[in-house]
Amino acid sequence: xxxxxxxxxxxxxxxxxxxxxxxxxxxxxxxxxxxxxxxxxxxxxxxxxxxxxxxxxxxxxxxxxxxxxxxxxxxxxxxxxxxxxxxxxxxxxxxxxxxxxxxxxxxxxxxxxxxxxxxxxxxxxxxxxxxxxxxxxxxxxxxxxxxxxxxxxxxxxxxxxxxxxxxxxxxxxxxxxxxxxxxxxxxxxxxxxxxxxxxxxxxxxxxxxxxxxxxxxxxxxxxxxxxxxxxxxxxxxxxxxxxxxxxxxxxxxxxxxxxxxxxxxxxxxxxxxxxxxxxxxxxxxxxxxxxxxxxxxxxxxxxxxxxxxxxxxxxxxxxxxxxxxxxxxxxxxxxxxxxxxxxxxxxxxxxxxxxxxxxxxxxxxxxxxxxxxxxxxxxxxxxxxxxxxxxxxxxxxxxxxxxxxxxxxxxxxxxxxxxxxxxxxxxxxxxxxxxxxxxxxxxxxxxxxxxxxxxxxxxxxxxxxxxxxxxxxxxxxxxxx
Length: 481
Known about the structure:
Shape: globular
Number of domains: 2
Strand content: under 5%
Largest sheet: none
Radius of gyration: 22 Å
Low-confidence stretches: 476-481
């Protein structure tokens, strides 16, 4: 499968999932209170740490291993099944202490139900890794879409019938069960069902450092909800969670889709002794222009977006959205940096960069948390800037990056983002003067900013301009010579 076709399928997959997620979030935000969502957010932040351990890097081992044998697949299967069972037990044991710590017995039932996810997940995850290895993004898209649909229907349906925050737990379980069922249909016939231990040490050695980095990142990402929920109240945790979810749409819109393709692309370039530095700079130029423009538009449209998506009861999340959108400017390149280090086998550098950057972020959160959720969001901006410098320093130890070309493309990206944001601001001002509805205001701003984005890319000759030009109708219909 070509890189462009893989990207198209990956984007279609993510956008279908995003539509489902947004629609479900809009419904749930109106059916549940901020406190109820805060209860579930704290539980999920707790389980996110366990989720990073659910296959201990075994899936990535299967993805990158050059000589894949039945014995190696059996060892991957053994790790995934064993870790899944262990995490289910740990989740059950931790449910009552967590409910006691936060003084909310609803957490006990939610965690007990979610423990089943860890038992079921391995039946889909081993096939998921295989499909990623083969770049079968069509099959992956079906699995994610159908599982997302099942989770959305269950969550919204139970919330509608007044079951409270545990509705989201049932939705999560429905997602896991459906995903495992669909992906099992694509499981290769030669994949064994019996686990094995012959290559267990190799699998664990490969995944341990990657898993360590994931654990550190998960602790850091969940720290705001933990701190705010304990130092203040669960409502503040809910506000921060919703604001972060809105800004994190960039991950669903762009980052996840691109990273799913760039990791195997970087690995292939490294194996073939290609110019990995130039490839890295090109991907970073594409990611930065889209990510920075997204940040600017979300900053400008924070208030109408929150009102439109979640309702008036979430107005307190608006300033958080704005600060987190600015922090995203520095977070956009991190996934690309991480993929490059993995493709080079630099797991030590990956773990070191993750630990250092997350330590900076954790310190910022700890200092800011007593002052409330707005200060925590504001503190993420300088913390993210320092983190980016640490990641780029790690990349520099592995490849020769054309820094001059990267600086030039960054200047172009900044120009595009500034003009795109200005267009969104102008549209927002015009719709405010004419007192249009929020839906009209958001659509008008998105339409105008999109046109400004495309025009500025072409006028500044940004590296992405060549890819945009490929989509022109006259390029597709030009007769062959």
